[in-house]
Give the backbone structure.
Amino acid sequence: MFIRRLIRPNMSSSLRFHTKVLQVKPESITFSPNSIWDGSLPVISDPETKQALLEAAHIIRDTDETVAFPTETVYGLGGSSLNDQSVINIYKAKNRPSDNPLISHISSIDQLNRKIYSETGLGPSDILKNIPESYHKLIEKLWPGPLTILLPVPPASTSTLSKLTTADQPTFAVRIPSDPVARALIALSDTPIAAPSANASTRPSPTLASHVYHDLQGKIPLILDGGACKVGVESTVVDGLCSPPLLLRPGGFTYEDIVNIGGSFWKDCKVENMKTIKANEKVRTPGMKYKHYAPSAKVVLLEPSKDDGKLEKQSHFKDIFRRETAQIPNLQKIAILTTKYLDGISLSSLDDSHLYNILVKTLGQNGEEIQANLFAALRHVDEEDKVDLIFVEGIPEEDEGLAVMNRLRKAAANNCIDF
Ligand code: TXA
Ligand code: MG
């Protein structure tokens, strides 16, 4: 066992709550198609789900505390975007640097106008007046869903949006999630909800309520458990306030989706390239400069380079396995997370494999499956199986591959090997 397992942060020092977990049924919540515009409330057929949502909505609307809840991407840790103390409590529970701004989650365009811009009674002709035209095609097709856009921060004289959500940027980030539990919570509290992913800072994002409990137990009062998140990586963050527009964080919608759906303005959308940003530079998406998605175990990412056959790839992996295992003293448990070529690899073909306990798990057969399983697989081998070393087979950076490889590179820090 490695020393790093013994020096995990001591959670007990700041335990403030008995964290309650309430089950909710997403399938019992129905929104009308027009609700994204007019803000009409959902119908909730399951009484327990309704009760749990009302309890969570009360915490968001009437207290300074936070609630973890499922979204279609990952679980979020939410507090009122309009209340400084709630935002402080989010940063505190996650132990997150406060110069990393938060996304405000809204349930409808009506709510954005009323609660962030203090404008009521807008009709069909001016309902989108607070959203620049560059975004209109995207949001008409992709909201509700995993798309986050940047908007100019409204003047403090007309808005109570907490400055702490924006970390002093001239813009704020906003999205309408498609997960019915998330949207119902925002609609019932009638409050824009600031919500980062509900993991402890630096850890992989949570896609199950049990991941949230593992990281934040004792630090928050309530977790709504709505099952596994379907998308599995965070929302795509885009900046359409500059020209050419920028994809700041690849996520649940692909770069190809944005370019194909966004209209001519998005045709030459650039991808923010983190490799060229220096440590002390002010970046467009500050979250990108921090350590992220890091399991306790060492992660080695196999970066697809040329398209060899399966036999060549597996033989190449044998060399990598020999080299990497030799570098770690007292190595006991190893996980191999496979995608295309390492699926079905024979363990007996690996040098000294009898000395180790080796687990082989597939991440999935296609981009969507791999994306949905990614964080849960990393957490499982790290937190449940307690392996010392994780090999992950990467995928090409197209479609879902861009978001998957973005997360995996951070999980692996600098341990990336051409494969
Ligand atoms: O899917 C998601 O987006 C999830 C769920 C809970 O909605 N939330 C999430 O939040 O991933 P978080 O805080 O883990 O990531 C938000 C990202 C960060 O990279 C942050 O730097 C960026 O959005 N961001 C927020 N406001 C920004 C702004 N004004 N300008 C540039 N980037 C911003
Ligand atoms: Mg996060």
Q: What stands out?
A: The chain has twelve helices and 18 strands.
